[in-house]
Amino acid sequence: MGGAIEGVLRLGDAYRALGHEQHLLTLDDPGDPWVAQCPSPVVALGRTGPTKRFYPARAINWLRANLSQFDGVVVDGLWNASTLAAARVLPAGQTPYCVFPHGMLDPWFRKHRPRKEWLKRQLFRVNERRLLRSARAVLFTAEQERQLARNSWPGWSGITEQVVGFGTGDPPHHEDAMDRAANHAVPGIKGLRYLLFLSRLHPKKGLEILLDGFAAAHGAGELRLVIAGPGDPAYVMELQERARALGIGERVDWPGMLSGDAKWGILYNCEALVLSSYQENFGVVVAEALACRRPVIVSDQVNIHDDIASRRAGLVCTATVAGVADTLDALSQLDPGAMDAMGARGRSLFLERFDMCRVAERILAQFL
User: Fold this and answer.
1) Residue 50 — very low, low, confident or very high, per pLDDT cuts 50/70/90?
2) 301-346 pLDDT, tens per residue?
3) Low-confidence winner among 34-43, 149-158, 197-206, 254-263 (lowest mean pLDDT)
């Protein structure tokens, strides 16, 4: 689950389109259904049964035995047992490798979860730093992410950095079946104007300021708000109670996680996608919205906000209630022609920067 894993799978599609193969080494249980459904060959070496062990001995042994079969390795993510396996084998091997942190070097936890940050700093000294220093390159999705990483971790010298971007595959063409699925997932939404949040429901995503800003925005009075995605039930209930207390409970829909036709239908028909996160490395759903020609509203804590602003593919707000409200009011002042032009510029930005085939080419260039 999550944008990083979705990105890995879409990169696999792009590699194959470019004539390469992707194989995945994971610590999933080999019996997990997503292993069987994965479009790339998977070596799943997680321990089955109720007993789980942190030290990935089987993955370490497999890497040592099979590493020479591959032209390059990409380590996705940090701070886990997979990273431990990679650090034990890859720096001493002859096969070049890169590390793709997917935002996991961002200092957000330093302020909001200091205990977790302390643990990360210890791990960085004994494991992650060695892995990063021996890599062909550490890959970043945006310049802001690169700057945050190099200025936040001690002993960063000697690490090679490369901004390669991130993205997703081109979405399927808009079809009537998608609209029907969306109307089934959110009954009565057909023909209505609505803003869309489509992501994991997590405190980091700024959902409280989105609800408060939506309630405060004068220009949002004729709009609905669809908040779609999985989340902890207790947290979702808190958000729903907040919406009711703000007097907007009947204007907010909570369909849960959407996928397939329902997801694309709700995305293609939204007025704009909103992601008011307190910290966001990339936001795959933002790239999906741009690809669908939908305007986006992102906070200035989403690391690709500079791209959105410079290409006028959407609006950028501060991660505050006032920032969200003011930006929603600004959106309401745009006429249909301006909205269509913004969507067209977003589509061009997607094709240039966030089409996964372009990202795959930049990653492959590290090994060629």
Assistant:
1) low
2) 998 999 999 999 999 999 999 999 999 999 999 999 999 999 999 9
3) 149-158
pLDDT, mean of residues 106-121: 72
Tell me whether residue 99 is exposed, middle or buried, using C-beta atoms within 10 angstroms of its C-beta: 0 to 12, 13 to 18, 19 or more.
buried
User: 3-state SS string over the chain?
Assistant: CCHHHHHHHHHHHHHHHCCCCCCEEECCCCCCHHHHHCCCCEEECCCCCCCCCCCCHHHHHHHHHHHHHCCCEEEECCCCHHHHHHHHHHHHCCCCEEEECCCCCCCHHHHHCHHHHHHHHHHHHHHHHHHHHCCCEEEECCHHHHHHHHCCCCCCCCCCEEECCCCECCCCCCCHHHHHHHHHHCCCCCCCCEEEEECCECHHHCHHHHHHHHHHCHHHCCCEEEEECCECHHHHHHHHHHHHHCCCHHHEECCCCCCHHHHHHHHHCCCEEEECCCCECCCHHHHHHHHCCCCEEEECCECCHHHHHHCCCEEEECCCHHHHHHHHHHHHCCCHHHHHHHHHHHHHHHHHHHEHHHHHHHHHCCCC
Instruction: Write down the mean pLDDT value for the chain.
Output: 91
**Pairing mode of beta strands 296-299, 272-275:** parallel
Predicted TM-score of the model (pTM): 0.77
